[in-house]
Amino acid sequence: MRPDRRRLAELTGDLSAAGGVRLVTLGDGVERGIRALEFRTGSGLAFEVLVDRCMDLGHAEHAGRAFGWRSPTGFRHPGLHEHNDEDGLSWLRSFSGLTVTAGLDHTLFGGEVPADGYRYPPRESVRHGLHGRAGNLPARLTGYGERWDGDTCVLWAEGEVRQAAVFAENLRLVRRIEADLGGDEIRLADTVTNAGFEPTPHMYLYHINLGWPLLDEGARFEADIRETLWQSDSVAEQKADHLTFPGPIPGFVEQVYEHALVPRPDGLHRVAVVNDRLGMRVAVEWRAAEFPYFFEWLNLRSGNYAVGLEPSTHHVSGDAAARQDGSMIWLGPQESRTYHTTFRVESAS
């Protein structure tokens, strides 16, 4: 139930009794020094915004039941990240949380691509790691708090992430996160701008990761799938069900699918994971025109048990293929792209 502003003022001298946003700093292990914003809506929805990790969403729960995935890496401080180590796979050493942003100029697997557009002879090419740099870049926190819009109290935070180098890309991400006091949804609005003056490649993907107890044996994947365009070889080898999930499997090899979804009449795509035993559904909605592609990541390995929902600007084939087939997004000087995504916790009944 959303609280009435006057009634809430009568009942408590401080809004934090009902919910709010609090800035804290994590203090131990590989997470030491990370600023986090703790959101509580008062409905049972609580989540973290990891300011120093691209303002991604970390821990997330509803009524004490977690739905954001927690991997063994923890929310590793970006100062510990080695972008080019392990042939670009070092991203996997800091891969955890409800969302991990991929981009801003590259997503999916790494590789080497030409850099001639930056007109700096010593930089002949750019070498990318898995899913790019954005998820391990700290944000400049530009504001957070609570504001009233009539009788609706909006909890909010905003920050700016810069991915830049001299004689290379100069990209700026402005991220705004909102949730209503008494509400059960998280709204994410991102604007990516080429702040430089050379045409710059842009690829973008959200790795949205759901874990236990929402994900459990018998939990279901809901999506209006028109066609599965691609799947990893591991699908045929293992034949694990990607619509009704089994429990953890030792040694499981990730299964990845690219699904073509049917957009709703309102122009949105919607997918969800449902746990009937818990009576809980977590749905994700985004604008089909902004993220026309979608991947399902099935990671049923014991100790890493998760399912990933991945709206994307590009096909699964990645950077080099996008340049070759003409589908790469080239942002001109001062040109922007905006993305809107909503996470909603619902009853499964």
From TrEMBL:
One of its GO terms (molecular function) is carbohydrate binding. GO terms for biological process: carbohydrate metabolic process. Coiled coil: none annotated. Pfam families: DUF4432 (PF14486). CDD domains: Aldose_epim_Ec_c4013. This is DUF4432 family protein.
